[in-house]
Amino acid sequence: MSDTKKLHDFLLSKAEQMTEEWYAKLDKSDPSGVYSSTDPLEIEKLKGQNYRFHENAFRILIEEESEVMKRMESWILETTSDLELVKTPIEFIIREFMRTRDVYFGFIKEFVDANKESMTIESTLHYYELIIKITDQAIVWYTHERNRYLNEKVRSQKELINELSTPVIVLSDHTALLPIIGEIDTDRARLLLENTLEQCVAKGISNLYIDLSGVLKMDSIVAQQLFGLIQSLELIGVKTTLSGIRPEIALTAIQLGISFENVRITSKLSQAIQQRY
């Protein structure tokens, strides 16, 4: 059996010990992360993730690098989708990767000292290089995937907020109100168009009040999309009434050559509703 295979088997035989000692020395002081959990199931899951990391990392000694990286990538994807780990500060997790790497170095030294007759400086350095490579790659992958997961979560939350912030409120059988509040960016303007059209069709709306008094500013692109909404509503048979248009928004619309034809405009929402009823 080659020294490399012996080292793999030696490290693997120590994997359970590494996991138990790792958990015993784990900083559990931060209440916001998974490391402080006292739930037996969470603790066992955490230990299991740690043990599987050892199994994957040690394969770098005996398998093709591409295969090992695939296994490690699967481990990364699994752990970065763990909601409890996501709550744990990223610096804590990176610290544990680095601490684990130091533990590996210690056991490699123990193995080398016990097999001095057959070990060379070149082979010893090679083992250290492989461990550095797999752990560094794991840190990079973990950081990247965690950021991607969190960015996707933020994007989904933003879409949900945008949907909730553009409600079509039914006032009567065929009349509704769309109050728009806050800053409108390109993404929100797109969702505004899609959601409003869908809700007007679903609720059988033929008259829609769009109140802009809560919109503080609007760039030219968003203005075009907003007034494109009015044109789209007209195409599906919905008449619109605009209220609360600020001077700067009106100026932007005029500069863009946006037509207010077939659109009723009032300075205040209350005026629009009074005129209607």
Describe the overall structure.
The chain is an alpha/beta fold. The protein has helices spanning 3-13, 15-24, 40-58, 65-80, 83-86, 90-114, 121-164, 186-203, 220-235, 247-255, 269-276; strands at 169-170, 175-181, 207-214, 239-243, 264-266. Strands 1-2-3-4-5 form a five-stranded mixed sheet, sandwiched between helices. β2, α8 and β3 form a beta-alpha-beta unit. α3 (40-58) packs antiparallel against α4 (65-80). The chain starts with a helix and ends with a helix. The relative contact order is 0.08.
Summed up, what is this model?
The chain has 277 residues and is α/β, with parallel strands linked by helices.
Rounded to an integer in angstroms, the radius of gyration calculated over CA atoms is: 30 Å
Strand content: 5-15%
Estimated structural class: alpha/beta
Kindly state the number of beta strands. Answer: 5
Average the pLDDT over all residues and give the rounded result: 85
Overall shape: it is elongated
State the order of secondary-structure elements, H for helix, E for strand.
HHHHHHHEEHEHEHEH
Q: Please outline the major beta sheet.
A: 5 strands, mixed
Number of helices: 11
Strand order of the largest sheet: 1-2-3-4-5
Distance between the termini: 92 Å
Question: Helical proportion?
Answer: 55-70%
